[in-house]
Design brief:
binds guanosine-5'-diphosphate; 20% strand; Adenylosuccinate Synthetase, subunit A, domain 2; alpha/beta; Adenylosuccinate Synthetase, Chain A, domain 1; binds 6-O-phosphoryl inosine monophosphate; globular; binds magnesium ion; four-stranded mixed beta sheet
Amino acid sequence: MPNRVVVGMQWGDEGKGKIVDILTQEADIVARFSGGANAGHTVVIDNQKFILHLVPAGILHQNKTCVIGNGVVVDLEHLFSELKELKKRKIKFEKRLFLSQNAHLVMPYHQVIERLEEEARGTHKIGTTGRGIGPAYRDKTARHGIRIIDLFDTQLFKQRVEWNLKIKEGLLSLLPEHELIALKNKSLDILKLKRKVKSLLADVSLFLNQSIEKGKSILFEGAQGALLDVDFGTYPYCTSSNTTAGGACSGLGISPVVIDEVIGVVKAYTTRVGNGPFPTEEKTKLGEILKESGNEFGSTTGRPRRCGWLDLVSLKYSFRINGVSKIALTKLDVLDSFDKIRICVGYKYRGKTLTEFVPHLRILDNSQPVYKELPGWQKNTGGITNFKNLPDKAKRYLDFIAKQLKTPILMISTGVKRDQTIRL
Ligand code: GDP
Ligand code: IMO
Ligand code: MG
């Protein structure tokens, strides 16, 4: 079986969780390589809904091994509460979930700093998930982050906490004295989790490379989406990690040559949570219909998602920077009721039509989408599992997308459940 990377092609929440769950059946190991508890990956099995944040979605398959790579920033309290919930729901993870010793910790002060910074940004705030992701990645690249392995050197850990609080003194002085003391104690308390961490510890890069040598196949689970990538996304309205396929290499310690396929997950329309440019956003009743039919509320924060039409300009860009080999198209059923469906094929900017996406706010904020309109099918596609049974107009919509993106479709999702899927 091929080693596949599953990555989101829009602003996250494309349905990666469901796609990873299905493709896990064809892999031995599922490896998460970036982001943190800002992710929310939903999997629905029968009538049970699971939302995974840090743990790879592959964990729901009892016989598969899962790893969390060095590229992930880990909030240990969050991880253990997620594991507790899985245990309650009879999902066993002992001896089959491993955590990279080089992954960086999201510390309690990261969340506080993020809140203070978002407040300071005022109307320009990013609208983050509030999970401390940005400050944790910032400390990592500034070289004062604390890694999982550092929990096992008590003196070093304590020194690092002191040092970090000192570096952040300016911002943290906004807190009342008692909150600052509580924050320091809470940060030092993370040490107490090291016993629980021990059973999960691994040299993930070594494990994956040895597994590949033995012929095992890996499914690399991405988080967020290409347009949230810190280098290629709509900066500064993005996350703080590389969300693209290349992140699998740096986030796990594997070579690009072991990747056989890149599966780009595309929602049949577009959504975005948080602030930032969104050229095809529908602030009209149509956007409301998409939100209600698609149940577009954040899996992590519960915030309503902004909704709009499919945007081929940004998708072509996302496909290019990821080298997508196959499409997994999700939420086709959400478009069932529309009599006309729009697809953005260009941006009108200062009298010119742009067809290449550039992640510059000035351009994106001042562009009007140029739409191609396709007829809606106005038939129920929910739960269809055979391509032949799709309405002709739905097939035409899919065909148009695949042709424009010059990429074949591997699967089409027609509902939240595992079996509501068409495989091509
Ligand atoms: P992820 O972050 O990419 O894993 O996506 P989320 O889980 O945050 O959001 C996707 C949402 O769409 C979840 O609530 C899924 O259960 C749901 N979903 C996934 N595929 C489909 C589909 O084909 N049809 C419908 N109606 N819902 C879907
Ligand atoms: P999954 O993996 C959708 C967005 C936030 C915000 C920006 C920065 O479920 O697709 P951060 O907390 O990362 O600093 O927030 O990125 N964001 C996501 N949006 N899905 C996600 O993950 C997201 N992770 C972060 O809403 O706009
Ligand atoms: Mg999500």
